[in-house]
Amino acid sequence: MPAFVFGMAVLGVGISMCRVIAVCILVQYRENAVIGIMYGFSSIGQTTAPFLLRLIQKVTTWKHFFWIIMAYFAIIGIMQFFVLKDVVLYGSKGDLLPIRQKWHGILTDKKLWKRIMSLTLSQLITESWAHWMSTYVKDIKKLTFHVLSIGSFELAIYRSGATVSSICFSHLYKKVGYKRSNLALLWSTCGFLIGINEAQGIRSVSILNAFIGFALAPTLANMLGSISSDINLPYVETTVSFALAVSTTGVVVGPLVLSFLIRDFGIDVIVGTSIVMAFVASLSNIHEPVSLVNSIKALPRRAFLQSDLVRKRLMNHKEQL
């Protein structure tokens, strides 16, 4: 068991390093929209992984599977060396700023902290649902699937929705702003979660599960794109590393806390808890909640004034006729 835990930790370090390097490069060249596309293509691997794992299990043993994975990561490392050997990150050119100055600039940036908090909460709901969703489908919905385990199937469906939205809507936050887009996506997630709680049958559950992945996936890329749009190039490496490191706590804490709730109250609490997490994550995108409340209060008056204006125009038009 200790060897397994150590191996998983080393694997996580390698994957995280690759992700930080990729995001740093995209941020440096202001390719904000490509961040969403990158996460979309990474979801393709997460979608196909359960099917490939099932196939490999039929033709080999876990011992051989371990060496297959090791060879795969070795190939990826060699490819990255040749592809990125000429890329130099701006923050590492001649050590432009002392590391202490970089960290001071990041830790005192309140705007960055708000965005990192939103990023963390988005990771919290995304990974919590991905981790416990298969158990919910098996134990509560009592669904089965003939090709492979229902958990792997629903996880693939969930990742498929994430893949499509990440690739197709990578420019979403640029069109309407990251706050509005994330609010719409997270509130839509709440609606889909309410729907899946009432849904019956593998078809309706799978469709809603795909829509949950579809709504949650762009929130991460939107927030990283928002961070990168205001970043100073000398702070690229430090800011991206810090943002991804802090936000990853959501990946760790979310499923762990949810496991204690499930142990005490049962697996059926996952939907209600996920709705609360999605709603709280949406509120973290509102930097001025008081102005939002005032805007909501003013909506009836605005609607009345607009309808009165339309009525007067219609009356004038009739008089002219």
TrEMBL record:
InterPro entries tied to this protein: MFS, MFS_trans_sf, MFS_Transporter
Organism: Wallemia mellicola (strain ATCC MYA-4683 / CBS 633.66)
Family: Belongs to the major facilitator superfamily.
Pfam families referenced in this protein's UniProt entry, alphabetically: MFS_1
Topology versus the membrane: Multi-pass membrane protein
Name of the protein this chain belongs to: MFS general substrate transporter
Keywords for this protein: Membrane, Transmembrane, Transmembrane helix, Transport
GO molecular function, one term: transmembrane transporter activity
Coiled coil: none
Cellular localization per UniProt: Endomembrane system
Family matches, as SUPFAM superfamilies: MFS general substrate transporter
Lineage per the UniProt record: Eukaryota, Fungi, Dikarya, Basidiomycota, Wallemiomycotina
Major subcellular site: membrane
Gene Ontology CC annotations of this record: endomembrane system; membrane
Transmembrane segments: 6-27, 34-53, 65-84, 207-228, 240-262, 269-287
